[in-house]
């Protein structure tokens, strides 16, 4: 099956690049933060062919799954507007 990494999350963007809120890529419908007009945040899911557990390689940046299955990560920045 497929999985979503839980150790990493999206984040708010404002005066500081990484700020609150943390934006999780999993959860239950109807729970979590309520989006407000003017919020700017990222979503950065890492989707895996296998298990969700990860490890960071020696370069201190590259993340792989512990089972070494294929995975993909992407990032988008979103702005919540009235429309």
TrEMBL record:
GO molecular function, one term: metalloaminopeptidase activity
SUPFAM superfamilies: Creatinase/aminopeptidase (SSF55920)
PROSITE patterns associated with the record: MAP_1 (PS00680)
Family annotation (Pfam families): Peptidase_M24
UniProt domain Peptidase M24: residue ranges: 1-82
The keyword Metal-binding is annotated on this UniProt entry: yes
UniProt entry keywords in alphabetical sequence: Aminopeptidase, Hydrolase, Metal-binding, Protease
InterPro entries per record: Creatinase/aminopeptidase-like, Pept_M24, Pept_M24_MAP, Pept_M24A_MAP1
EC number(s) reported in the record: 3.4.11.18
A GO BP annotation: proteolysis
Keyword Zinc in annotation: no
Signal peptide, first to last residue: none
Gene Ontology CC annotation, any one: cytosol
Reported function: Removes the N-terminal methionine from nascent proteins. The N-terminal methionine is often cleaved when the second residue in the primary sequence is small and uncharged (Met-Ala-, Cys, Gly, Pro, Ser, Thr, or Val). Requires deformylation of the N(alpha)-formylated initiator methionine before it can be hydrolyzed.
Record's protein name: Methionine aminopeptidase
Native source organism of the sequence: Pseudomonas syringae pv. japonica str. M301072
């Amino acid at each position: 099956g497929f999985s979503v990494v839980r150790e990493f999350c999206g984040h708010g963007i404002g005066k500081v690049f990484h700020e609150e809120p943390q934006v999780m890529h999993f959860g239950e419908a109807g729970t979590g933060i309520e989006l407000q007009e003017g919020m700017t945040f990222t979503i950065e899911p890492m989707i895996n062919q296998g298990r969700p557990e990860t490890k960071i390689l020696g370069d201190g940046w590259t993340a792989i799954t512990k089972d070494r299955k294929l995975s993909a990560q992407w990032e988008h920045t979103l702005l919540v507007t009235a429309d």
